[in-house]
Specification:
3 helices; four-stranded mixed β-sheet; globular; 18% helix; two-stranded antiparallel ribbon; alpha+beta
């Protein structure tokens, strides 16, 4: 197993561009809170030095591929909590670890609006866009919407 994929310190395991573009086409993201200058998927992004966990995500359409180490639980909690703010959508790409406390506390039982389990294993890239080996775990896309962004609520089309 590639231990670097599981490290909170390594932010170089990037979302494949075609995978991101498919989600972006659907959701129209404008904030990437867990990025580096090279890996950022949105014009507005936070680097490790900015510490996206301490920033306000309210009012944004967020795409987050957080570091996959022990701190992932903090990112999942942050995604859920920020999604409670008006005008906020959070889409997070995480390992599909359904046995974890954070999965039960912040995703299951109606906390997430959608959970999309990916078929097969995602091939992450490095910061240059070069494909890496397939991840050693299955992945899921978690979607949280603020109350005003849910069906029947305010339209959230990009302006």
């Amino acid at each position: 197993m590639n231990k670097a994929l599981l490290s909170s310190q390594n932010m170089n395991w990037c979302t494949p561009l075609d995978f991101f573009e498919e989600l972006d086409h659907e959701f129209h993201f404008d904030l990437d809170p867990a990025a580096t200058e090279k890996s950022a998927k949105c014009a507005k992004y936070y680097t490790p030095e900015d510490d996206g966990l301490k920033k306000d995500w309210g009012g944004y359409r967020v795409f987050c591929n957080p570091p996959y180490g022990r701190q992932i639980q903090d990112w999942v909690q942050k995604g859920y909590e920020e999604s409670q703010k008006p005008g906020t959508l959070v889409v997070m790409l995480i390992p599909a670890r359904t046995d974890t406390q954070y999965f039960h506390d912040y995703i299951l039982r109606g906390k997430a609006d959608e959970v999309r389990f990916l078929r097969g294993r995602l091939k992450f890239t490095d910061e240059e866009g070069n494909s890496k080996d397939a991840a050693p775990f299955p992945s899921a896309v978690i979607i949280w919407r603020s109350a005003d962004m849910k069906e029947g609520g305010t339209k959230w089309a990009r302006t």
